C-alpha cells in the first residue's frame, strides 16, 4: 500500500465556492475515485486556500492512468481547474506531490523489529557455547 500526499493552491477568493462544490462531490466522481483504487482519500483546507490531499492506493500509477482516461474524472477536473493558482494541467494529474518523512505505524513496526533483533542478539551473545 502506498500513501500519497499532495498540495494545491486555491485562489483565496474562490475558497467558499470550492468547498461548496465538495459538499458533496457528485456520486459518479466518488465512484471513479474508488474504481481507480484510491481509498482513505481526504482533502484538508489551510489558510489562504492551501489545499492538502491524502489517499492510499495499491498502485498509484494505475490509479493515475485510470483517472486520466476517465471521461467522468476529466469533466470533474475541467470544472474544478478554475479554482487553482499556478497549476498547469488537470488538478488530479498536476498536483505537487509531497515526500513522506514520518509515519507512526512504520516506525513503531521498525522499532519493534529492531528491539526483537537486539534482544535476540544480546541473548545469543550472553549464552555459553
Question: How would you sum up this structure, described in words?
Answer:
Keywords: Isomerase. This is L-rhamnose mutarotase. GO terms for molecular function: L-rhamnose mutarotase activity. InterPro entries: Dimeric_a/b-barrel (IPR011008), Rham/fucose_mutarotase (IPR008000). Its EC number is 5.1.3.32. It is a single chain. This protein has 129 residues and is of the alpha+beta class. The protein has one domain (2-100): Alpha-Beta Plaits (2-Layer Sandwich). The protein contains six helices and four strands; from the N terminus they run E-H-H-E-E-H-H-H-E-H. It has helices at 15-21, 27-35, 60-69, 71-80, 91-94, 104-125, and strands at residues 2-9, 39-45, 50-57, 96-98. It has a four-stranded antiparallel beta sheet with strand order 2-3-1-4, with no helix packed on it. Strand 2 and strand 3 (50-57) form a beta hairpin. It starts with a strand and ends with a helix. The model has no long low-confidence stretch (mean pLDDT 91).
Amino acid at each position: 500500500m502506498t500513501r500519497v500526499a499532495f498540495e494545491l493552491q486555491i485562489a483565496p477568493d474562490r475558497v467558499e465556492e470550492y468547498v461548496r462544490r465538495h459538499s458533496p462531490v457528485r456520486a459518479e466522481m466518488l465512484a471513479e475515485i474508488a474504481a481507480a483504487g484510491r481509498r482513505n482519500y481526504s482533502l484538508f483546507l489551510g489558510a489562504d486556500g492551501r489545499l492538502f490531499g491524502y489517499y492510499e492506493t495499491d498502485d498509484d500509477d494505475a490509479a493515475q492512468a485510470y483517472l486520466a482516461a476517465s471521461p467522468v474524472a476529466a469533466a470533474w477536473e475541467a470544472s474544478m481547474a478554475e479554482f487553482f493558482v499556478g497549476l498547469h494541467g488537470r488538478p488530479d494529474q498536476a498536483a505537487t506531490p509531497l515526500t513522506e518523512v514520518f509515519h507512526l505505524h512504520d516506525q513503531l513496526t521498525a522499532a519493534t523489529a529492531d528491539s526483537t533483533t537486539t534482544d535476540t542478539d544480546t541473548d545469543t551473545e550472553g549464552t555459553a557455547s
